[in-house]
Amino acid sequence: MNPTIAIVEDERAIAENYRDALRRSGYQVNLYETRSEALDAFRQRLPDLAVIDVGLGAEVEGGFELCRELRAMAPALPILFLTARDSELDIISGLRLGADDYLTKDISLPHMQARINALLRRVSVLKSRDDEGERLQQGALELDVERMHCRWGGDPVDLTVTEFWIVHALARRPGHVKSRSQLMEAAQVVLDDSTITSHVKRIRRKFQDVDRAFDAIATAYGLGYRWQA
């Protein structure tokens, strides 16, 4: 069955343009104009990926609130912001709330589709890998790849798809420095360097919420990151 994509966008013509392009690529697409309408639908059935605008009708930051609510409902669901708001503060806010990617509306349709394809592929890539089996353990870290669950010292750490993939890519080769471009190549994804950096900062905070002494992700200045055993 083809993946279902939910588009939450209050400008109908824009939403229909995205929908038509994605349907031509074989996706099932559902459109929602408001946060409440989308939430009602998501409580009944979750999509495979959500594309959300920041401003939704009268709610100037309704998309941010929806992302927070959706992330609480589904920690691993791929979420992508697609919005006209391109300030660094908005981008950081979106990523802090748990979005996997943040795009602006000046992006071309083929580029948008490439990012969506990459995000969905990330889920299947992780689940299809069998070189470590279904579980990966490094010291206090335990990753259940099949269920996309992460634990640190036995305590759960809620990671998004992107965050889980980054941790997995680093932890499977402890001590090896992974550049930002190598992290992208490892799972065949399309992300820029600043987005990778933002995700790493968020990952560290999540582990530090569980263990204040967490320092397993080291920065190799000018090179990238490595997992410290």
Task: Supply the key terms.
single chain; 229 residues; Rossmann fold; Arc Repressor Mutant, subunit A; five-stranded parallel beta sheet; four-stranded antiparallel beta sheet; 8 helices; 11 strands
Give structural notes.
This is Transcriptional regulatory protein CreB. The modification 4-aspartylphosphate is found at residue 53. Residues 133-229 form the OmpR/PhoB-type domain. Residues 133-229 bind DNA. It is a single chain. With 229 residues, the chain is of the alpha/beta class. It has 2 domains: 4-125, 3-Layer(aba) Sandwich (Rossmann fold), CATH 3.40.50; 130-227, Arc Repressor Mutant, subunit A (Orthogonal Bundle), CATH 1.10.10. Helix content is 44%, strand content 20%. It has 8 helices and 11 strands. The protein has helices at residues 12-24, 35-44, 62-73, 88-96, 109-128, 161-171, 180-186, 193-210; strands spanning 4-8, 28-32, 49-52, 79-83, 101-104, 135-138, 141-144, 149-152, 155-156, 217-220, 224-227. The chain has a 5-stranded parallel beta sheet, with helices on both faces. Strand 7 (141-144) and strand 8 (149-152) form a beta hairpin. Helix 2 runs parallel beside helix 3 (62-73) and helix 6 crosses helix 8. The longest helix is centred in the middle third of the chain and has 20 residues, at 109-128. The mean pLDDT is 87.
Helices and strands, in order, run as EHEHEHEHEHEEEEHHHEE
Shape: globular
Assign the CATH class of the largest domain: Alpha Beta
User: What is the tally of beta strands?
Assistant: 11
Main β sheet profile: 5 strands, parallel
In spatial order, strands of the major sheet run: 2-1-3-4-5
Helix content: 40-55%
User: What is the overall number of helices?
Assistant: 8
As for the number of domains, it is 2
Give the CATH superfamily of the largest domain. Response regulator
Taking the alpha carbons of the first and last residues, their distance comes to 40 Å
Q: On the 0-100 scale, what is the average pLDDT?
A: 87
CATH architecture of the largest domain: 3-Layer(aba) Sandwich
Low-confidence stretches: none
Radius of gyration: 17 Å
User: How much strand content do the residues show?
Assistant: 15-25%
| CATH level-3 fold name of the largest domain | Rossmann fold
Report the structural category.
Answer: alpha/beta
